[in-house]
Amino acid sequence: MISNNMYNGINLIGKSLDASLLRHNVISENIANEDTPGYKRKDVKFEGLLQEALLSNNNSSKIGFNTMTPQVVVDKKNLSYRLDGNNVNIDTEMTELTKNQIKFNVLVDQVSNNFSRIKTVLSR
After folding, report:
1. What value does the mean pLDDT take over residues 104-115?
2. What global pTM score does this model have?
3. What does this protein do (predicted)?
């Protein structure tokens, strides 16, 4: 019998991919609003939620991946040095976009490897 625990890793990667896609959209929105007066950059919070869930629950089979959703938050701590109140820094956003793309590619590779292993096991 196949255990549901076998799919926890895939479910986790799936949620992480969802967060990465959302982060890409949020960063793109930040870049598009670089010249909008008063615009405050947004960010996605997911890794902290995931870490809390993993640390608070020793039994990984009971972690509710379905209830974990990435959250878009307004970055109020990032001070604006501009007179118009906009706190978007294009260099920061491009760096974050690159980091996010690398994370996304790693996650896609992990999903591919997981399914390849499952396919190998099932074909034997």
Report:
1. 94
2. 0.82
3. Structural component of flagellum, the bacterial motility apparatus. Part of the rod structure of flagellar basal body.
CB 110 within 8 A of CB 13: yes
For residue 63, report the phi and psi dihedrals to the nearest 5 degrees.
-75, 125
* Structure tokens given for 32: 């598009």
What's the pLDDT tens digit per position in 65-103?
667 889 999 988 767 778 898 999 999 999 999 999 999
Which sign, positive or negative, has the C-alpha torsion 106, 109, 115, 116?
Answer: negative
Nearest C-alpha neighbor of 22 from the set 43, 8, 39, 41: 43
pLDDT, averaged across the chain = 86
3-state SS record for the chain:
CCCHHHHHHHHHHHHHHHHHHHHHHHHHHHHHCCCCCCCCCEEEECHHHHHHHHHHCCCHHHCCHHHCCCEEEECCCCCCCCCCCCCCCHHHHHHHHHHHHHHHHHHHHHHHHHHHHHHHHHHC
In angstroms, the first-to-last Cα distance of the chain is 16
Distance CA 115, CA 124 (A): 14
